[in-house]
Amino acid sequence: MNGGVMKKKVTEFPFASARRITPQEVAAAGEAVKEQFGIEPPKRGRPAKDENER
User: Fold this and answer.
1) 9-47, pLDDT tens digit by residue?
2) More confident of the two residues 2 and 24
3) Structure pTM?
4) What does the buried/exposed string (b/e) look like for 14-25 if buried means 16 or more CB atoms within 10 Å of the residue's CB?
5) Whether 33 contacts 39, CB under 8 Å
6) What's residue 2's pLDDT?
7) pLDDT at position 3, please?
8) ∠ CA 25-28-32, rounded to 5°
9) CA distances in angstroms from 27 to 8, 32, 33, listed in the order given
10) Which residues contact 40 (CB under 8 A, 6 or more apart)?
11) N or C terminus: fewer CB in 10 A for the chain?
């Protein structure tokens, strides 16, 4: 055993060692959601303006 010493739980995300996901990984995750659940993931971001709103 570990001598009764409990490890401290990490409660915050390790931003210092995190990395950004690639567009390919985003696409693969979207395809997986579509395949597993049969739903189209919502598009992210602000929608484009119409021509008459510019």
Assistant:
1) 768 888 899 999 999 999 999 999 999 999 988 888 888
2) 24
3) 0.51
4) eeeeeeeeeeee
5) yes
6) 62
7) 64
8) 140
9) 36, 9, 10
10) 34
11) N
Query: In the structure encoding, which two tokens stand for residue 40, read together?
Result: 């189209």
Q: What is the pLDDT of residue 25?
A: 95
What is the reported pLDDT for 48? 85
Q: Which long-range contacts (CB under 8 A, 24 or more apart) does 33-40 make?
A: none
Cβ–Cβ < 8 Å for 41, 34 = yes
For tokens 């950004």, the residue is 20
Q: Who's near 39: CB < 8 A, 6+ residues apart? A: 33
Neighbours of 30 (CB within 10 A): 14
> Given the structure tokens 């919502």, which residue do they identify?
42
Tokens standing for residue 20:
């950004």
